[in-house]
Every structure is written in C-alpha cells, then in structure tokens.
Amino acid sequence: MPTRFRRQISRRRFLTAGAGAFGTIAMPYLSRAADRPQIAHGVQSGDVGVDDGVVWSRADRPSQMMVEISTTESFGHARALPPIAALPESDFTARMLLENLPAGQEIFYRVRFRDLAHTGISSEPVVGRFRTAPADRRDVSFVWGGDVAGQGWGINPDDGGMLTFATMRKHRPDFLLHSGDTIYADGVIAAEVKLADGKIWKNVTIPEKSKVAETLDEFRAAHKYNFLDHNLRAFNAEVPIFVQWDDHEVVNNWSASKQLPAAYKERDVMLLAARSARAFHEMYPLRQSLAEPGRIYRTLNYGPHLDVFMLDERSYRGANNPNLQTEYGPESYFLGPDQLAWLKRGLLNSRATWKVIASDMPLGIIVYDDGPNRKGSEGIAQGDGPPRGRELEIADLLRFIKSAGIVNTVWLTADVHYAAAHYYNPDKAQFQEFDPFWEFVAGPFNAGTFGPNGLDNTFGPEVKFIKAPGPGRQNLPPSAGMQFFGHVRIDGGTGQMTVTLRDRADVALWSTTLDPKIG
C-alpha cells in the first residue's frame, strides 16, 4: 500500500498527551534484590513506522512487561503504558506496539517486568531507543545482511564476540534489514573448533545447541543463544530490526520435500517449520497481521523516500525439485500467487522514491538443493536459458514492473555468505521484458564464509563486485575477517541512494550511488 502519513503529533503534544491518556506513574522498585525478575536477553524494537513501532523483551518468570516512553534520554515527562503479560506460553516474551508517536523523532523506552506472583517486585530497568520514520524528506540510513551463528561459529569471546554488530552500530543506522538465517537451528555449537592454522576457536555454549533443534524450546533456545552476545544486545537496544526468515530457522534448504538427516528424531519437516515459526514470532518485534496471523511478508513504509517490501520465500514455495517447469503452477511457486499479487499491488501503489525488495534469496545466483548429485534447485535460478520453474514467477513480476512504469526498485539479499553487487541487464538476458535493476548481496554477520556461486543468465546479471573466499577456502571462520554487511544511505534532498558493501572491520569494499528516476 502507499505511504499514508497519519495526522502527526508534535513532541510537545506527545509529552502532554501522555499524562492525560495514561498518566505518568511511578514504576515499582524492589526491596528484595534477589527476588527480582531478570531481563537476560535485552530489549529490541522493530517494524518502526512514521508514528509507531514495536518493542520486545523477555523475562524469566510470569510477569507483566511495563514500558515507559519519552522523547528525552532523561525520561523527563515519561509516558507509562498499560502493562502486558509475559507468560510461559510465549516463553515469557512480550511485544508492545507503541502508537501516537511524533514522526522523525528519537524515542527512548524503558522496560521493567513486574512479578505476577509478587506485584511489589520488579526487575531492574533496561533502556532502548529508536527513531520513528520521517514524514519529511530527510536522510535515511540503514544496514542489511544475514546469517548468524552458522556452521558452528558461535559467540567467541576471544574473538570479541559477534563483532559485525558492533561495527554496524557505529554507523547509527535507522534500522537493520535482517535478510534471514537469524539462527542455524540445524547447527551444533561445540565448545571448541580446531582451525586450519592449528588454533582453537572457543564458543560460548548452552545445552540446547549441542543438538539440532526439534522441540519448540530448542528453537527458542537457538534465538536466545544469539542474544547472549553483548555486541548483539547493544545493537538491538539502539537499532530497530526489520526481520524475515530463510531456511536455517528450520533446517538447511527446507521445503515440503525435505528429507531430514539422521540427526533428527522428528521426521516431519512441516511440524518442525511450525515450531520454528512460533519461536521466530516470539523472539522478534514483528507487527502482527490480522488477515493471516504469523505472516512474515509485509510492507514497511519508512517516509517519503523509502518503502521496504519484506518477502517470505519459504512458507509458500513448492517442494524443492529440478525447477524446470515450463508453465506456472504449484510446483514452481516461490512467493506463491497471493504474495505475488500483494507485492504487485504494493509496488504499483507505492509513492516512495525507492522501493526496496527484501528477498531472503538472490535472483540470479545458483543455489543447489542438497539432494543426490546436487541437481535440485534450492533457489530461484536453475541454470542458463529462458525462464523455467520458479523463474516464471520472477519473469512475471519483472514484466509487470516494466509495463506498469514502476521505477527505482532495488533488491537486497543475503543467504550465500559472501558480498556481491549484480546489475541485471536485459541486453545480456535470455528474458528481456524488464527494465535494468540492481541486486546487492551481503553477509554473513557471524557464520562461515563461502562462495562464489555460479550465475544464471536468464535475467542477465552482471557482476560489478564480488568478495568471496574462492576455491579451497570455504567455510572460513569469522576471525578470518570475511564477514560482510551492506549500508544504504538515501540523501533527503536529492533522493540519491548510496550503497556500500563493508566488512566487519568497517572497510568500505565497494560503493555506488544510484540516481532516482522519475516515473
């Protein structure tokens, strides 16, 4: 849907409205410190709009989450919101939608949990912040990427922990677009891993990560493991997250046809996916869809210059197969008809300068399934030639974008564990009914580094930049330095978008500035 800026309230009205609407109340403090509820996993915000945003936290017992918000760090004239329950059914997590916020304003929030059994006892406070989306054409800055705690590379204090999050935090982005593989539910985190040079990588460990995730509590624990990292908690407290999922939230390359490895006692992949989805929604500050509870695909409007279309390329795909169909049907679904129709409507109605399509998988990079002889397709691309299989869906979308005169679409993705910039050129493509566009690839944040993969010429991708280990140097640890993220800056005055690919040491590896077209 197009950005519709609702009637905004000023910072002064925000503060004065607080006392009338909710009252500024004194939050209860403890007399028995040992009995306090604990907030072990920090706070998060996410899905921020022009006048609202979601905050999240987790207690260690049945509690009420109590939130105060203010436009000043001192919490002068803070507004206290009605408490909400954090119960065992949600693993003591709680999310709250903060509404009626001033546009383009830094919002400070303070979270405590009040023990339900002893209402005079509450936790120590934890403070977070986020900036609401602008109603005017100011600068916008955000980072993106994916892949956390993969291939057995977990939290290593000797390596500084998950350093990419500390590096991204220094840029003070408006938000993080997390492209998926937020966890590796199918990956074991061992206490020690021997490196190629004979050194030892030492992980923080928890019992649940000694095996693949199968139960709901094991999926939850995989998310909570990541939150043990101090870099990640500090980042979450200051930067909102726009999150989607990919395969490793469940198991590598999962679809309805997935044959689970011997490590799994539970043999039903769709049951694993359902448990994973519940844990995913509990552990992140996502907006809830009334039309389809648990839906991940959504539009996030971030001011006049930017709409972000968050895709879900897992929940509606057909079973992984050779991907060679010549007609579109259930076997070649990737987004699926309903999500595809939603995306077309959203792009057509968007009035934002830039339309960012957040895809959890790349378009033209070939990603094989893990079956015998690696002939199956895990992603969109299936090899050179005209559109077939899942490519039929993308061809239809690209044709629609061109015929509707939609301009300034950019695709951002992760998944393949290296950094790249691809320019899709119809003059070099087998299918040519589309306007040129860019796709940028970033990641991993904290996982093994791989690649590069082969490219499919169906949509004519040209490699403008690539940074990958190359043959014989796969699954490099984070300590090798090849951990990547992308940084996007949109100039409020000109509308120009500058995209920079960086490594965890904050070295700018490659950059380009895109001029917006007038549709």
Automatic annotation (TrEMBL):
Residues 41-132 form the Phospholipase D N-terminal domain. Residues 143-500 form the PhoD-like phosphatase metallophosphatase domain. It comes from the Bacteria. PANTHER family: PHOD-LIKE PHOSPHATASE METALLOPHOSPHATASE DOMAIN-CONTAINING PROTEIN, PHOSPHATASE, PUTATIVE (AFU_ORTHOLOGUE AFUA_6G08710)-RELATED. This is Alkaline phosphatase D family protein. It comes from Bradyrhizobium sediminis. The lineage of its organism: Bacteria, Pseudomonadati, Pseudomonadota, Alphaproteobacteria, Hyphomicrobiales.
